[in-house]
Amino acid sequence: TAESILSFFGSTTPNSSDLQTWQVRGSNDAVEKSLLFTKYSPSNSCRSSIADTDTPNTTSLNSRNLKIAAFDLDSTLITTRSGKKFSSDAQDWKWWHSSIPNTLRKLILEDGFKIAIISNQAGLSLKNKSDPKAKLPEFKSKVSSLLNKLDLPVSVYVATENDTYRKPRSGMWEELVRDTLVDKSEELNLEETFFVGDAAGRAASPGRPKDFSCSDRNFAENVGIKFFTPEEFFLGEKPRPFSRLLEPAKYFQGLTTQCSQPFLKKIKMISFFCVVAPDQENQAGTGET
């Protein structure tokens, strides 16, 4: 009901950061651990809501019905309350658009999606946690506050180094899929799975600056899922023109037209030459060769 939805989003819980357990992961033992991970467990009231709305959409025996809605964090789900480019403290955030909480709730409760946040955070440092510039406690507190306000089951993956986890590389996605497909018989529905992010390679337009990169769009391309910008997904806007530094398909198309026929040289004859030293006892005579 409308009353229950208002109650759901109006509720707050003190010390929300205490509700979160964070992990630091690495792709293997030989690689330095640089991936931050946490998973929010909703309150009892939210668990009941999810259980009550369980339908064949979310519990189907069709293994391909497992689908993920993944989102970037900054300038996609949230922005700064202060208006600054980067948040000044753990409280300096607000929803990118007021519709976001209800949209995420609908994705889970009505459409049967699993929700994940996938974010690059190069400004964080896991090497020296006591460094006041690391901002790790501040970031964890901000994310915990966000998750507490949502009170929905959400997994969070954060790349802190320029390694296999950093978008547009696929490391965080591989971790997410591994965590999601616990049952080996399950299969991900890539046709409905999607990623939303603001780094989309868009050119500047009136009132809107040029995107700083195309890493989010390239990430979705690399893992084989649909991509939307926040404006497209949350506001229903039409796609804006974009460009990439490299379009592999166009690049290889050009190469194939230049070398349409492989180079093959027909071999007509093979000659073998064999030289045998003359017998030492008959050096003056003729030897057989």
From TrEMBL:
GO terms for biological process: DNA repair. Keywords: Kinase, Transferase. One of its GO terms (molecular function) is polynucleotide 3'-phosphatase activity. InterPro entries: HAD-like_sf, HAD-SF_hydro_IIIA, HAD_sf, PNK3P, Polynucleotide_phosphatase. Gene3D superfamilies: HAD superfamily/HAD-like. This is Polynucleotide kinase. It comes from Blumeria graminis f. sp. tritici 96224.
